[in-house]
Structures are given as structure tokens and as C-alpha cells.
Specification:
Length: 164
């Protein structure tokens, strides 16, 4: 490995160590929120375009949930009932969000008027809980090595997203 590559790798490692998961996943949440915002504007106004945006939203959301459920949530150190309840709530929120989206998608496909307020509220509450409580707690409990592992997997999936 030449010196430039070594310097770049060291720089990446230092960048990862200085980044917290709250920031990293917050960036991904903003991407998903942009998809939600576009969808909410189109719902009941332009069903064809709304379905297209909803498909894109589902892809981004499923990728995001995969990261959280397979990497992040399982990395959370469960020290008691309260910790387990918090992680269980996040899994439950994910299932509810996906279920609501499928229901809305089905209605739009049938040209039935949809009410997105429940989905909007659930997503906003879920995102705020992760941003304000879950990720800051995780940032203070995980080692830099664990955070680096999550960071690298998240970046791989984000890079895959930008290629498609």
C-alpha cells in the first residue's frame, strides 16, 4: 500500500471515530424524510407519481430498517427491562410503518382516497425517539470499534443506493 492510500485510510478511520451514530443515522433519516415529504405532497393528488415515489420510499426505508434491525439494534447493550422495552418499541414501530405503507399503497392503487396523518405521526415520533433518545444513548455506550463496524456497513449500503 502506498503512502497516499495509508494516509487516506487513517483519515477515514479518524473521521469515523469523530462521527457519532446519531449524526450518521440522522443523515439517513433526512433522506427518508425527503421521500416521505414528496409522497405526502403527491398522495391524493397524483396517484401514479405518488406510487412511484412510494416505491422509492419503500426501497430506502427497507434498506434503512435492515441496517437498524440487523446492525444497530442488535448492538445495543441490553442491561435491563427498560432497555429491552426501548428496542422492542423500535422493532414494533418499524413493523407498523411498513404495514401502514402497504395499506396506503393498496388504496392508492385502487384510486381510494388515503389519510396519511397516522403514518406521518408515527414516522415523526419514531424518528424523534431515535434521534433524541436511542442514538445518543448508543453513542455513549458503544466502543469506537463497534461504531466503526456499523459506520462501514451503513456506508456500504449508502454507496449501493447511490449506484442504483
Amino acid at each position: 500500500m502506498n503512502n497516499t492510500k495509508i494516509i487516506n485510510e487513517i483519515s477515514k478511520i479518524n473521521e469515523i471515530k469523530s462521527m457519532d451514530l446519531t449524526q450518521l443515522m440522522g443523515d439517513d433519516h433526512r433522506n427518508i424524510m425527503d421521500h416521505f415529504a414528496r409522497f405526502f405532497l403527491l398522495a391524493n393528488n397524483n396517484n401514479e407519481e405518488a406510487l412511484h415515489v412510494l416505491d422509492s420510499l419503500c426501497w430506502e426505508l427497507e434498506r434503512h430498517l435492515l441496517i437498524e434491525e440487523k446492525e444497530v439494534f442488535l448492538s445495543y447493550p441490553i442491561k435491563g427491562v427498560k432497555d429491552q422495552e426501548m428496542v422492542d418499541r423500535l422493532f414494533k414501530d418499524h413493523r407498523e410503518i411498513l404495514h401502514m405503507i402497504e395499506s396506503i399503497k393498496s388504496k392508492i392503487s385502487q384510486n381510494i382516497h388515503v389519510d396519511c396523518s397516522e403514518l406521518k405521526t408515527l414516522w415523526i415520533d419514531h424518528e424523534a425517539f431515535e434521534r433524541d433518545i436511542f442514538y445518543p444513548t448508543l453513542d455513549t455506550t458503544l466502543s469506537d470499534e463497534s461504531k466503526m463496524g456499523i459506520y462501514q456497513k451503513v456506508n456500504t449500503l449508502i454507496e449501493d443506493r447511490s449506484k442504483s
